[in-house]
Amino acid sequence: MQEVINFIFIAGWYISAILFGLQTLKIFHSKSGAGVSVLAMGGFFVLNVNSTFWMYFHQEYLCILATGGIAMASLISLLLALKYGNNKQKYEAVIFDLDGVLFDTQTPVHATAECEVLKGYGIEIKPEEISHRFAGISTQQVFRELASHLDSKKLLEDKWKLVREILNKTHPEPIDSIIRLLAHLSLKETPIIIASASPKWYIEIILGKNIGKSSGEMGKLLRHTPLKKYFHENFVSAEEVKNPKPAPDVFLEAAKRLKVNPKRCLVIGDGKSDVRGGVAAGMDVVYLGKVDEEIEKLQNVISFSDSSDLVAYLLKQQNLF
């Protein structure tokens, strides 16, 4: 009978140690001390330090590891709770790529214009291929890779002239599901900002475009609502930083302007340059696009092939924003 009691006694200590360890991991991953009593954790730390010494002097060596583990987990939980405070949300800000995320402009506008410019020099390539390979990368870099023998600055000037013409003739389609996310973030008063590889004048034009569609309840409601309603003047262009995507500069500058720790920012982008830049900036990334081996290996990146699934996932999560 005594052996059974001893087993239950020892098992209780180890189960407690495991539970305290899980509590510590939860605080670390959520970066929030919400619901954690600093006084209680301090008490558990002192209690289990004393228990460890008591076990040692009474030769209860099987329990020393458990009591020591509880003491250590309590101390770490205490320190993390003091560091993160009562943060209820994981992210304090969201950084959006513009083309292909907020508006369907990557292929119909950018890639189409680039194809037309290259076609004039006898280089044939489809807009879809350009979008897949170079989404989010500076246009000059695109031309350097596809037409290294030509003057990339001249090609860039021609491209933006065509883009202006396209925008004057057509209205880019907003990504309806992402607009739902913007509305949600607005209600939560979560700061948002655009980090784009495009020039400032282009971003300003797109900010003035209406985000509503002729069909759908939300589309009709926002038919005459410009994107600027949500972002105001919150955007960073690659023109404003030293290094364009895939360098982290635009994302770090975006976090700086919002006065938010980069680790508390979430990036949403549709290009590998967004993924690489966001990860390099120490941010979590939601990638909208086809997953490959490179993307799968990244731990702080989650991927979706459809924007509706992306938004549905984010809206279902607790304490993200």
TrEMBL record:
A GO molecular function held by the record: phosphoglycolate phosphatase activity
InterPro entries listed in its UniProt record: HAD-like_hydrolase_sf (IPR050155), HAD-like_sf (IPR036412), HAD-SF_hydro_IA (IPR006439), HAD_2 (IPR041492), HAD_sf (IPR023214), PGP-like_dom2 (IPR023198)
The keyword Transmembrane helix appears for this protein: yes
SUPFAM superfamilies attached to this UniProt entry: HAD-like
GO biological process: DNA repair
Keywords: Membrane, Transmembrane, Transmembrane helix
Membrane-traversing stretches: 6-22, 34-56, 62-82
Pfam families in the cross-refs: HAD_2
Database matches in PANTHER family: PHOSPHOGLYCOLATE PHOSPHATASE (PTHR43434:SF1)
Record protein name field: HAD family hydrolase
Biological source species: Candidatus Nomurabacteria bacterium RIFCSPLOWO2_01_FULL_33_17
